[in-house]
């Protein structure tokens, strides 16, 4: 087989988990917007579901979806290229198994984004450092996959 079976299986699992998480975040965004629209209507206050940065709860739901979507093409491209390349050249940085398992770390980081944002939120100066507990591991996984890919094509 061209691709390591373990890497392929866990790569598929991690990717499916990522998509399930993404759609769960979309549902959360939709339900949050709907619930808040009803709440604001009862309070007779103006409400905009789109580009609303004044309501912290809606902003959190929007940013969870937006950040996940913004990172999706970069992560999935690097992830799968690294799985395939490291399967062909199974040496050095990023064995097929370690690349595949890094996908779970990435999904866990994305999963933590929403609750960490809820706990810490943002300030006028930007995000609270607690959100970095979620985002930094995700960036490190992307760097790891890029290094594994680079290493595989150098050999």
From TrEMBL:
GO cellular component, one term: membrane
Position of the signal peptide: none
Pfam assignment, any one: MAPEG
Major subcellular site: membrane
Cellular localisation: Membrane
UniProt keyword annotation of DNA repair present: no
TM helices/strands, residue ranges: 12-31, 100-119, 131-153
Source superkingdom: Eukaryota
Keyword field contains Transcription: no
InterPro entries: MAPEG-like_dom_sf, Membr-assoc_MAPEG
Key words, A-Z: Membrane, Transmembrane, Transmembrane helix
Protein name: MAPEG family protein
